[in-house]
Fold this protein.
Amino acid sequence: MTNDMSQYPLRLEGEDAPMIRFQDVTKRYDDLTVLDRLNLDVAAGEMVTIIGPSGSGKTTVLRVLMTLERIDGGVIYVDGEPLTHMEKDGRLVQANAAHLRRMRGKIGMCFQHFNLFPHMTALGNCMEGPVQVLGLSKKEAEERALELLDMVGMAEKRDEHPSRLSGGQQQRVAIARALAMRPTVMLFDEVTSALDPEVISEVTNVIRALSEQHQLTMLMVTHQMGFAKEISDRVVFFFDGSIEEQGTPDKLFDCPEKERTQQFLSAVLEAT
Amino acid sequence: MSYLEFLSTYGELLAGGTLMTLAQFVLAALVAVAAAIVSGLMRLAPFKLVRGIATVYIELFRGTSLLVQLYWVFFALPLFGVSLHKFAAGFLTVGLCFGAYGAELVRGAVVSVPKGQWEAALALNMSPARRMWRIILPQALVIMLPPWGNLMVEILKGTALVALISVTDLMFEARQINSATYLSAQAFGTALIVYYIFARFMVTPMMRWLERIMARRIGRA
């Protein structure tokens, strides 16, 4: 990678600095460019939903933010600081493990397939991070976990293993598990795609409640257009690794300007 | 001489040998498990040198005969200044030999834990060591227990070879009795039965029990 990093600021300052900034972010898998010089800002407390056809790079946006994947060009900033890079002698260099760990602490993520730890109970899943990573005592961690399990309506199932829970219940535990780390940014990667239709609302209700508190910055990838329209502050339509069109939900869903957006939306609406 | 007479005459010798076989088996199994976990994880290390060391160990012990290894450790190593008592040489060599097979079970099981588990652990910001120890290994254990049951039986049967470096195990005693009395059928027949009973009614049920316990802990029962 022979990127000239000097064009990128060492940090973002000022009141209008975004919580998340993608600046010229490129991600490739071999010959396939998944993100093509992506620029995207998300303000603190904002709820942004990413929609688009599969293969358009929308999930990759979340995965590189969670540092599950490396980027091949550009810089991502979170909370004013570079995420994928760090400052060294006044220049940006690749982030080392310590920097990544510090930055990762600001971000939480929920997955399409929940990925709960099968050998732990619902409570154990929510205590694992706080005890092992944040160093909370068992008692503190349990209090925090129970509070969150209660918030997602899963307090009664605290002692059940994931295999005894339905998909909707597992996803709610997974949300509590992520929140127990007190992240500033929450990422939801198609969290309802693997759910049976009748339990989808269990999960969307939790996310709606979170969005109404406006404390978290949230980035969500979803195929549920109705839900996206209802709770998002902004909707971003991805096509071929870059943003084709974005705007308020009303504008994007009701009078999309670009032809590709129109085609995508009419195809999706026809299917549902 | 009836078989009952045979047993009353040589039963004590055979019982002593059986106890020695048990001791060799238990210690060899512990060595095998430890060696398998360490070298299996080393095979997954990000550093080439670490992976290389594990590969050399696995190839060396898997690619050569256990009997030759026993002779090497007991007869040849002393020439290089490393003298082990025959008891230690026995279980260590058997353990290291089967640990090399176990290493592949460990590596395979760790790799087959779903990728989402690694990602969820990373999203919780767990360090690589914690991810492995708290999240991946417990799940890998459940995956690898059934093939370990097989390996445990192999270890038990493999200990019979320590007789050839004169560890006084069941096989050693059976050979002694045979050469003194020529009662081959009785001597080796008894050994055969004892090995079978241990494998069938001790090792296998114990591994099944472990599988059930672990399945329950993972909430699958």
Chain A has a mean pLDDT of 92. Residues 138-151 of chain A form the longest helix (14 residues). The interface with chain B takes residues 66-68, 101, 104-105, 107-109, 111, 113, 115-119, 121, 128-129, 132-133, 160-164, 174, 177-178, 181 of chain A (CB under 8 Å).
